[in-house]
Amino acid sequence: MGEKQILMIPGPTNIPPRVLQILGEPAVGHRTPGFSKVVKDVTEGLQRVYQTKNDLFILTSSGTGAMEAAVANFVNAGDKVLVMENGNFGERWVKLTTRYGANVEVISGPWGEQANPQALRERIEKDVHKEIKAVYVTHNETSTGVRNDIKALRDAMGDHPAIFIVDAISGMAVSPLPVDEWKLDVVVSGSQKAFMLPPGLAFISVSPKAWAVCEQVTTPSFYFNLKAARKSYEKFTTPYTPAASLILGLQESLKIIEEEGLENIYRRHDFYKKVVRTAVKALGLELLTNDEAASSAVTAIKKSANLDVQQLTKIMRDKHNVVIAGGQGKLKGEIFRIGHLGYVDVNDIIVTIAALERTLKELGWEFTLGQGVATVQELLVEGER
């Protein structure tokens, strides 16, 4: 029974049977009228999830590919850019923009706390000559379990002409992110998170303001060239061979998302956050983030003095067939993380907390067995009333 594994990491996530069935169907031609209809259909479905009328493109890559596209198409070497960094994926924006020769200024914040809108506002106000060309932020900082306040960060920009670029890879279809309403210029996401697919697709939206910047960029790009993507989409196709089977699977996953409805999806993920956080507290463990900053996609738990995080995640995986995540970057070995996004239900959470309890007992943690599971059950009963 070892193959019966519960995946509770912040990505890749579990895949619904309906989607798995589509993924297992025979290959299709990607330069056919039928597949062009699929590309048009899924692009429009993604626009509804993004809540945008902006152009949106499907890239065959991981989410990092879309992040690279969000640099290569909008930044010239020497351009001044700001990065709000409060975790491992904020650091990825720093690495990408630096690699493309930008003049990068980093506004760093503590890992486990939200990016500071006031710090951004103060820096923007000092830019009287409008030298800053782009601001890069992270919606859901997967490495720390923090949801940054994107609306407050965007509002801190005021009417500054810099474009506002968001990594929403693990936050899209988890927490509200109305792209047009909040005036977000470039937003990237990926298939292996709340879109409930394997890794291999990335999505990027581009506002008219961002297109105007793109027209002035001379940075060389080929595979991730969004002008090529825009030209191909005029015929509802892609400039290069797409992951056709994944796009067909995406069509089905978007149907599932629309059947549930975005507001219900947001509420469900918020409830999962509450359940996991409450259960973890009941076991006497300490959370990395406060409730206000907490992500609805993943919960980060601090290492306690007598707990070995690497050993804990190994026992969970190898003995109890529940896969959770360790820390990343400077938090490696300091936290463990439980993902609860996408195709997850309350039974998955109950099993995960039960497995965590057994693992903690094996590692000598002092608590009453069943405390966490009982807490989950109580919250579920309350929710059904």
What does this structure look like?
- The protein has 385 residues and is an alpha/beta fold.
- It has 2 domains: 6-12 and 261-384, Aspartate Aminotransferase, domain 1; 17-259, 3-Layer(aba) Sandwich (Aspartate Aminotransferase, domain 2), CATH 3.40.640.10.
- 41% of the residues lie in helices and 16% in strands.
- It contains 13 helices and 14 strands.
- A 7-stranded mixed β-sheet has the order 2-10-9-8-5-3-4, with helices on both faces. It has a 3-stranded antiparallel β-sheet with strand order 11-14-13, with helices on one face. Strands 1-12 form a two-stranded parallel ribbon.
- A hairpin with an 8-residue loop joins strand 13 (325-326) and strand 14 (335-339).
- Helix 2 (33-50) crosses helix 9 (244-260), helix 10 runs antiparallel to helix 13 (371-384) and helix 12 packs antiparallel against helix 13 (371-384).
- The longest helix is centred in the C-terminal third of the chain and has 21 residues, at 262-282.
- The mean pLDDT is 96.
